[in-house]
Amino acid sequence: MQYHKQSNTTSEALNRLVWEHLDERDWLGNTPRSYATSIAVEAAELLEHYQFSEQPVGDKAALASELADVLIYCFQYAIHTDIDMAEAVRIKLAQSAEKYPAASQKGKTREQQHAAWLQARTNHRATKKGL
After folding, report:
1. How far is CA 78 from CA 19, 22, 46, 64, in A?
2. Helix axes 60-81, 85-99, angle to 10 degrees
């Protein structure tokens, strides 16, 4: 798989675009639950493009539109709950790197990767309380 560079738009610029869009329409009054629900609904709409096939139904623009919906609702959730998305991603990637070391995945078959992932996931769940 090849690395694909994103545009130079910063996460703060995206955050500002979403904020302005919401503010211009007085759409800032929803609840975290409504945003979380919307994230799930929009993610399901993206998944629907793959419902019966590994190849998506729809073109790149249709898939990009669904993905944008997910991301926009993520920013809305972050705005409402005062979460810094860039910082949250950095923290989550660091946690993931600790939980799933690159050495357990790199150069392995998909079956070996899955087995290592499943073992790490099982170990992680065993250490969590209430889940």
Report:
1. 10, 13, 21, 21
2. 100
Count of residues making up the chain: 131
63-94: per-residue pLDDT in tens? 999 999 999 999 999 999 999 999 999 999 99
**Residue ranges in the chain whose pLDDT is less than 50:** none
The CA dihedral of 70, 18, 14, 79, to the nearest 10 degrees, is -80
Q: What is the DSSP string of 21-90?
A: HHHHTT-----HHHHHHHHHHHHHHHHHTTTT-SSPSS-HHHHHHHHHHHHHHHHHHHHHHT--HHHHHH
Contact 96, 108 (CB under 8 A): no
**Which domains, from first to last, does the chain contain?**
11-83 (1.10.287.1080)
